[in-house]
Amino acid sequence: xxxxxxxxxxxxxxxxxxxxxxxxxxxxxxxxxxxxxxxxxxxxxxxxxxxxxxxxxxxxxxxxxxxxxxxxxxxxxxxxxxxxxxxxxxxxxxxxxxxxxxxxxxxxxxxxxxxxxxxxxxxxxxxxxxxxxxxxxxxxxxxxxxxxxxxxxxxxxxxxxxxxxxxxxxxxxxxxxxxxxxxxxxxxxxxxxxxxxxxxxxxxxxxxxxxxxxxxxxxxxxxxxxxxxxxxxxxxxxxxxxxxxxxxxxxxxxxxxxxxxxxxxxxxxxxxxxxxxxxxxxxxxxxxxxxxxxxxxxxxxxxxxxxxxxxxxxxxxxxxxxxxxxx
Length: 327
What we know:
Elements: E1 11-16, H1 19-33, E2 37-42, H2 53-58, E3 66-67, H3 75-93, E4 97-101, H4 105-116, E5 120-124, H5 136-146, E6 150-153, H6 156-165, E7 170-173, H7 177-189, H8 194-197, E8 205-208, H9 213-216, H10 219-231, E9 236-240, H11 243-251, H12 255-259, E10 264-267, H13 272-280, E11 284-287, H14 290-298, E12 303-305, H15 313-317, E13 321-323
Parallel strand pairs: 1-2, 1-4, 2-3, 4-5, 5-6, 6-7, 8-9, 8-11, 9-10, 11-12, 12-13
Helix pairs in contact: 1-7, 3-4, 4-5, 7-13, 7-14
């Protein structure tokens, strides 16, 4: 824990825990801090340097006031521990408002814990729907939206989704934080040495990411991806590998097969600035990430999303994103 300026009249707590949360917190932190005491609580959902600490450094965010250190585990255990530990923190700090971001387990846990204690909840990036209940993120979105008091929707489609579901909270069409964040990151990314570090020329490779449970938990999906890599043997593919994906490849004995794909360069997860540089200079992006779909669109890089559906339907409607399943 670190000290805060307790003289400010309003106390707002932000709950974050995973890469997408940190990214959304970055442009919000300064604004909140200009009029309120802003307390940042890190659940510890992501705890590797590449998925956690590096984002606080890159975005010049202060160290979290609290780190719950929940770590990995089954979603039920992880969410339960977060709800319990957050309740203890809320009891100590008595915030006027709790802000949650996106659709992670930390998002839902923060919203539910605050709601159970009678604290108002604001949800940044509300109203997104993929209409695919196989995705844990979809459940997190729906539940969080229906217990939030203030809902900040990034798109007109998101606003309509919330209106159709008759949520009780106040809905605001706030726009998408990623627009200003990506624009800012592009400026910093010009100084990134990531291409030189891994021996790449601009526009000479595809950028691939995959981390969602519906893909990584399916051996059939993993086999399908490796098969596709082999078929694309003449094309360089850069693959910043998520810890979950790496773990599942090991458990299914498929990692060796992936490493045999000589056209695939597997690298560790990287910071946001380096990732934006890789994305901007890719010929195409292949992903199952909602955030990466958006970033590809904002960078004018064609994207193939390895999912049956997307919460960012605007990217498909604009012709920059194509949906395809892994199997």
